[in-house]
Each structure stands twice: as C-alpha cells, then as structure tokens.
Design goal:
Helices cover about 30% and strands about 25% of the residues. The N and C termini lie far apart (about 45 Å). By secondary structure, the protein is an alpha+beta fold. The chain is elongated and about 80 Å long.
C-alpha cells in the first residue's frame, strides 16, 4: 500500500484527498494516515491540509522498496525487488537468492554494504546514504563464454541512465567502469554460476557514486560522484530506475543478436579511449597501442606499434590511459 500511495502522490499535480486514497486503495482513513506518517518519518515532505488532502512537496532520497517500486517502470528488470538497509554485499545476497530460484530480473539494492566487492577481490567502499549499490539477477540462455558481454551491456545502461536521471554526459572505460569528466563514477562486477555448456545465473553488481562531496586519499584523483559533477543531489531511486530501464533496452538487443553487434557502434561512440593510446596491463607483459574499439564479442581491439591488432579479453587484463586512469 505504501508504494501505491507514493505513486499517487507523485503523479498528482495537486492535493489528493484522504477519501480518494481510501476509495482507490480500499482501505480506511486510519490506514492512510499511518502510511502518510511512516513516509514523513522516512524523510518525505508531505503537506496535509484540512478539506483538501495530501500533497507531496519533496521526495526523500531513500532506498526502500516503496520508493524504488514507485519509480521503476520497466517490464522485468527490478520488478522483483529486495531491499536492505544494510547487507554484506548485494552481489552475495543476489547469488544466494539466485541459488534459491529467484526469477530473472530480480534486483537487490542496499543503502549500505559492509563487504562491498570490486573486481579481482578488491573491496568497494559502501557508506550509508551516499550511493547506489545494486545487483541484478539474470538467467540468460547463452554459453558461459559469452557472459562477459553482459558487463558491457550494463556499462551502456549505466552511462545512459546517469545521463537521463542526472543530465551528466558519461563514457565507458572498457570494460567495467563508467566515467564522467575523466573520473570514475561507477564500477561493475559480473559473477556467474555455470557448467561447461550452460549458465545457471549471472549477477551484475553495479555501484554508482551519487552523494559523496569528496573522496579521501589516492581515490580522490580518480573518483567522482553525481553531486560533485552536477552540483546538486539527484535521488538515488531515479538513477536506479533509469539504469534498469536502459538495461532492459540494451539487454534485449544483446539477446536478439546473441552478441553485441546491434549495440557495438553505440558502445564505441562512448568508449573513453577509442582511437587513443592505451597501456594494456597483461600477465604476459605490458604493452601500448591504439584502442580501435570493441568487436561484437566484446573484446577490445588494440593496434600495437608493429601494426598488429591484439584482441584483449576483459577477464585477463586491465587497460589504462597512457597518462593516467583514463
């Protein structure tokens, strides 16, 4: 009921009476009053005027099931929603739910993580009330060797979602970082459970810096947030909803083709290092070359000084700009 009341308040341009809420939802005035007070306690600014009703003056930047459900409008991504005030890792939670049989498109979101994870076992700082921490459960009918492409699909969705929700122009640092003005605003971690010829599930973890005013230490040179770049705060639920909407769009094209051929040109148009010199950090030895963009299977093409074109696999190496992070 809380979700429905929020939706009605957000969609109304004027006051909406308690009687109308009662009739639409089939509940008592006392039940409506209790929910309105709960929303006020969560931080929503709701004006109540006798003989006129209720009006939402300002939404709250909260991560709750009611708030997220009132914003998410896609067909399947995030329609099954699990929210936590605090958890260990949304990826770990999502994997446990996937093992228990949760449906394709289940979204796990937390306001705070105690054991957030990045690539290669790195920790991901996850303070309360500042960022988007979410993990999406997918059950794709693809071979395990093609699962790494999902990370690139997610990066495109985040870049577009940030632009739609916050008005910021974002680019992708292949394969799993989203960048605004040369600094990282989002990281993506994709994990899966699979056998030799089939995937049980894929979990796409997405962390987006939203409300941080500053970053400490070395990370201050490479990280940024929506608040820093925009100069004003954007509710995290808007960003979650926008990313889920974009993810559905790009994922459907990926599913249709079975690879990235239908979105490859768009991906390359927002690839941060496309056409620029990059350093490839590989276990077999580092080398430099010119980034030529991705192929339909998600591999990055790098042309080395001797004219050869190397195919770079996302799980094996890191790519850096010659003069820094990007």
């Amino acid at each position: 009921m809380k979700t429905e009341i929020l939706k009605l308040l957000k969609s109304s341009q004027d006051y909406i009476s308690g009687q109308e809420l009662c009739e639409r939802l089939g509940v008592s005035r006392t039940a409506i009053w209790k929910v309105i007070n709960q929303l006020k306690e969560e931080g929503y600014e709701i004006e109540a005027v006798r003989n006129r009703g209720y009006r939402l003056k300002a939404a709250a930047d909260v991560i709750t099931e009611a708030e997220l459900s009132s914003q998410i409008r896609g067909q399947w991504a995030g329609r099954t929603l699990v929210c936590y005030e605090e958890t260990d890792s949304t990826n770990d939670r999502a994997k446990r739910l996937a093992e228990e049989g949760c449906p394709h498109g289940t979204l796990v979101v937390a306001d705070c993580q105690k054991a957030g994870k990045g690539r290669r076992g790195r920790s991901w700082e996850s303070p309360r009330g500042t960022s988007v921490y979410m993990s999406l459960v997918l059950r794709p009918e693809i071979l395990p060797s093609a699962a790494s492409m999902v990370t690139l699909v997610a990066a495109m969705a985040v870049a577009e979602g940030i632009e739609k929700a916050a008005g910021l122009s974002a680019v992708i640092k292949w394969p799993n970082d989203v960048v605004v003005n040369g600094r990282k605003i989002c990281g993506i971690l994709t994990e899966m459970s699979a056998e030799m010829d089939c995937i049980h599930y894929v979990v796409v973890g997405i962390g987006i810096n939203v409300g941080q005013k500053e970053f400490a230490g070395e990370i201050s040179k490479t990280a940024t947030s929506v608040l820093i770049e925009k100069g004003s705060l954007v509710p995290r639920s808007l960003i979650v909803a926008a990313v889920m909407e974009s993810f559905e769009k790009y994922y459907s094209l990926y599913e249709k083709a079975g690879d990235l051929s239908l979105i490859m040109d768009e991906y390359n148009s927002i690839l941060a290092n496309n056409g620029k010199e990059v350093r490839v950090l590989a276990s077999s030895g580092d080398y430099t070359g010119i980034s030529l963009g991705i192929e339909k299977d998600g591999e990055l093409l790098v042309k080395t000084e001797d004219g050869k074109v190397q195919k770079v696999l996302s799980g094996e190496v890191s790519v850096r700009g010659i003069y820094g992070y990007v």
